[in-house]
Amino acid sequence: MKEDINNNITKHEDDFIAPEKRPLIPEGKYEAQCIKIEKGYSHSSSRKIFLHFKIVDWMNFDDPPVIFMAMNDPGRKVSVGTKYYQNWVIANGNRLPIRKDRMSPKIFLDGMFEVYVETVKPKFPDKEERPDCFHYSKVQYIKRRLAGAN
Fold first, then answer.
1. Residue 1, domain member (yes or no)
2. What global pTM score does this model have?
3. In what helix (H) or strand (E) does residue 90 lie, and over which residues does it extend?
4. How many domains does the chain contain in total?
5. Per the count of CB atoms within 10 A, which of 19, 51, 85, 95 is most buried?
6. Which CATH number fits the domain that encloses residue 77?
7. How many whole angstroms separate alpha carbon 119 and alpha carbon 107?
């Protein structure tokens, strides 16, 4: 227990735990391995697929950053113009799916890719950019498949 400003006793259960800081690296192309796939919801409550990539050609090999890529969950039927479809085709060795093929996100897992990383610069509701401490990196797209499970 601890005392607050008004000398009231508060419990540690009332404290919040800070999340890990999102990685921030220079924008550009990197070699990366997809190490994890998650399904979830974005801040706008839309269904998403999150791919987590470990940057393997990072200068500091002791602690390579893990950066996510978010795509809309396509549901049961995938449209050709979606980010999921385009990245899935690249992960599939640039082979288009045949009609009625299943397009599992497992195609990404353990694969090595050249990815493009960009910086996200969140804005306040008035459209002004938030301070630099809120900036983070994300994988914008997969440029090409290098190797790995398929």
1. no
2. 0.82
3. helix 83-91
4. 1
5. 51
6. 2.40.50
7. 26
